[in-house]
Amino acid sequence: MKYRLLLLMAALLVAWTGVACAFSLPADLFAIEECAFEGDLSLTGVMNLPKGILTVEKRAFAATGLHGLAVPEGCVSVDASVLAGTQAAYLLLRDAATVLAGGPVPDVPFVFAPADSSLSSLPGFYALETLVEENGLYYSVTPGAALPLCAMDCTELSGTLMIPKTVAEQPVRSLETLKLIGCDEVTGLQVPSCVDMPGSLPVEIETYMALSITEPVPSTLEAMVGDEVTWTTSTDGAYGAVSYIWTFNTDGSVTSSITAEPTITYVVDKEGLCIASVTAVDESNDRAFATGVGVTVGPPIPRYRALLVGNTYPNTSTELHGCDTDVAAVSTVLGSMSTTDYSVNTLYNVNASTILNAIPSTFANARVCDVSLFYFSGHGTSTGSLVGTGNTTITVSKLRTALDQIPGTKIVIVDACYSGNLIGKSTDPASPSSFASAFISAFSAYTKADLASNGYIVMTACSKSQMSQSLTDGSIYFGAFTYGVCYGSGYDEWNQCSLSTMPADKNGDGAITLGEAYAMAVERVNWLKEMVSMEQVAQYHGDDDFVLWIK
Question: 105 exposed, middle or buried (CB, 10 Å; 0-12, 13-18, 19+)?
Answer without folding.
Answer: buried
